[in-house]
Write a structure and sequence with these properties.
Helix content: over 70%
Structural class: mainly alpha
Number of strands: 0
Number of helices: 4
Radius of gyration: 39 Å
Amino acid sequence: MLSTSDQAYVFLSTVYAGFIIGFFYDCCRIIRKMIRAGVFVTGILDFLFWSVIGALSFLIIFYVNDGDVRFFTIAGFMIGWVLYLLALSRYIMMALNWIYQALAKVIHWLVSIALWPFRMLWKAAALPAAGLKKACGKLRMGIRIKIRSLCKKQPKNKMHKRNSGFNVE
């Protein structure tokens, strides 16, 4: 039988674990937002979330309460998660969202710096290619005009009398 102080320690430990569970949940929400997860990826993230939470809950109960599952341990997890959602979740989500946006901007900036030489090479190669494209277009247009002029110069085929092989005079 646990003393009252031991039961309070177990309860507060599970409340703290409930806060950690809420934080992991917010992290999963941000990951879903970052990758715009579909049904399949959401299922995988949910499986990972519940696997981590199950392992965490097991370790907390095993370490703090020697594996005894009591009503107040389960209530501690739920109360901790609800308190986190009511008190901290909004602010943690704003902070995680700000971190996500800042990281996205930094990564975009770094990628644009890394790709700058390739863009310059592409532009340098595109300039002669544009001239070549223009020359090919002019050549094609010249050939088309020449073919049309040849077709117009030929008289239209009139129906010629065919010689049937009989000479009638």
